[in-house]
Design goal:
By secondary structure, this protein is of the alpha/beta class. It has helices at residues 48-65, 100-120, and strands at residues 2-7, 20-23, 26-29, 31-36, 74-76, 89-95. The strands form 2 sheets. A 4-stranded mixed beta sheet has the order 1-6-4-5, covered by helices on one side. A two-stranded antiparallel ribbon has the order 2-3.
Length: 122
Amino acid sequence: ILDLHRDAITSDNGTKTKPTVTINGKKAAQLMIVSGCESGSVTNYPDWIYNLRFALQIQKTCSDLYPSLARPLMFASRHYNQDITHGTLLIEMGSEANTHNEVVYTAELLSDVLVRVFNSNA
């Protein structure tokens, strides 16, 4: 399960951040993969290591194919509903400041990345 969102990146003064990168001459919204783990008070999360490996495969493939498309992976001791099933990740696609076209282009690039990740694991 891939839970796709737009990130909320707003500074204290109300300025919204619009993370973009130009790939093949087109603007894309940068994405960020969020992977949670079991630690401290976060328990009963049996698949977090599998999910992290999956996240790292996506991050590396993204970096290889489309440098700078992915922001650094966010890894924290939280569930993010990723404890519900094996292979679940949260992916933030740009922010509320990115345009629809930027996010759609990111989705196209991400779909290419995912096909390659899934084919390499077949």
